[in-house]
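Fill in residues.
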């Protein structure tokens, strides 16, 4: 019998794949239902894959570890496989793939129903506490009983999203069998910044080019939507640099360029014309039509200017200062919102201890791992679920 520990994305995929090969499979899930985290993904829509799923979108000590799994199960294969299960998908212009129903619940339903239909024994409320070697197989310690399995796939996920099932349980199970775990960091997570300025921006969304630096050394860059919150910044462009922020630790500065398509001098020229045309315009409206009103007003305050100051009174130097603030609005980063709010864990079980062609442990034949528990994390945009499917499929096919 094959035991799969964890009824999330990778576990359900591994279970289905092994069952398709006629194996007797038991799927053990500690929560009352399988796929709980999946229900929260993509804001309830489940961004289940990405057309551009390729190794360069993944991180970890050795991101090339993903090559065989991704080559065997790319985005097209994932869409086709889900279609064979009864799930239709759509691909958005940016490559993100969603269920046609726009409901994460549909993804869980097709996986759960097909797994049950193929004879997978789904055991929920069933936490595996330890795994021990017994002969050529394994003995799994459950709360009240022990379970024997010839092969085991650990699909316990990572620490991210604790409220929807994230935990360190998988790392501990594998460490108990001699595997090593790297340091763990929250990734795809909101950043906390100094709040004096951003508090006034709560709820504002803006497109910007972001750069993250530490003691003047550039660390990461991204562009896209930023959402201001009471604690700092969120949104896809922030998620893209959050891994670097999390790993780097302190002394971080976030610089936002709200008009990357214009130079500072071009912006200053636009402001000069505006001041000539509308000399009575109060400072509070100076950037109206260029940026979100509240953002414009905050930038003026950032420059130390009065919001009731008429446009005619602004000097060349002050206009240049505003243009500079639009291009280089700087916020000291004080941390991240942590694992509770993160979408994925950076770090995990060291991949060099697993064979990338099969996902079998190099230390313990018959033991496999898939999904987030391994030291692999993906960019924002469906890459993490794609890794869960591709690795779950590979482990389920080769054991
Ligand atoms: C809010 C949120 C939104 C996200 N949105 C997206 C998105 O849109 N697109 C995307 O690609 N990724 C997204 N992710 C990331 C993605 O959900 C995960 O990377 C992916 O689910 C990992 O799959 P997994 O199978 O490794 O782990 P999981 O899906 O987390 O499944 C692990 C399962 O194992 C169970 N388990 C753990 N330990 C034990 C044990 N000892 N015994 C029994 N069961 C155990 C857990 O309860 C859990 O059900 C999101 C994550 C979060 C938190």
């Amino acid at each position: 019998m094959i035991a799969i520990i964890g009824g999330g994305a990778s576990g359900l995929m591994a279970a289905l794949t092994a069952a398709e090969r006629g194996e007797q499979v038991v799927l053990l899930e500690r929560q009352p239902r399988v796929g709980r985290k999946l229900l929260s993904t993509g804001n309830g829509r489940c961004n289940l894959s990405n057309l551009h799923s390729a190794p360069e979108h993944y991180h970890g000590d050795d991101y090339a570890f993903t090559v065989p799994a991704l080559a065997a199960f790319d985005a097209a294969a994932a869409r086709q496989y889900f279609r064979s299960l009864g799930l239709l998908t759509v691909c958005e212009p940016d490559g993100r793939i969603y269920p046609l129903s726009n409901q994460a619940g549909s993804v869980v339903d097709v996986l759960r129903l097909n797994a049950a239909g193929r004879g997978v024994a789904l055991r929920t409320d069933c936490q595996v506490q330890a795994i021990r070697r017994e002969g050529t197989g394994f003995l799994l310690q459950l709360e009240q009983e022990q379970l024997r399995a010839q092969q085991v796939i650990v699909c316990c996920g990572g620490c991210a999203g604790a409220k929807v099932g994230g935990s360190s349980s998988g790392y501990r199970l594998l460490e108990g069998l001699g595997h090593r775990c790297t340091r763990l960091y929250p990734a795809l997570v909101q950043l906390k910044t100094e709040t004096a300025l951003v508090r006034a921006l709560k709820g504002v969304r803006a497109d910007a080019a972001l750069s993250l630096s530490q003691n003047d050394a550039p660390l990461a860059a991204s562009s896209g939507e930023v959402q201001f919150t009471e604690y700092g910044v969120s949104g896809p462009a922030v998620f893209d640099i959050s891994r670097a922020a999390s790993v780097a630790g302190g002394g971080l500065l976030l610089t936002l360029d709200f008009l990357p398509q214009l130079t500072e001098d071009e912006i200053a020229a636009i402001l000069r014309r505006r001041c000539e045309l509308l000399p009575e315009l109060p400072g509070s409206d100076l950037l109206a039509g260029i940026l979100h009103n509240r953002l414009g007003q905050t930038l003026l305050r950032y420059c130390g200017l009065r919001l009731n100051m008429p446009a005619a009174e602004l000097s060349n130097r002050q206009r240049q200062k505003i243009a500079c603030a639009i291009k280089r609005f700087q916020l000291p980063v004080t941390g991240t919102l942590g694992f509770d709010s993160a979408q994925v864990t950076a770090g995990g079980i060291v991949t060099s201890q697993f064979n990338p062609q099969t996902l079998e442990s190099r230390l313990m034949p018959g033991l496999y791992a898939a999904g987030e528990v391994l030291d692999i994390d993906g960019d924002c945009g469906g890459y993490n679920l794609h890794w869960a499917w591709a690795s779950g499929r590979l482990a389920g096919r080769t054991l």
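The chain is about 30% helix and 25% strand.
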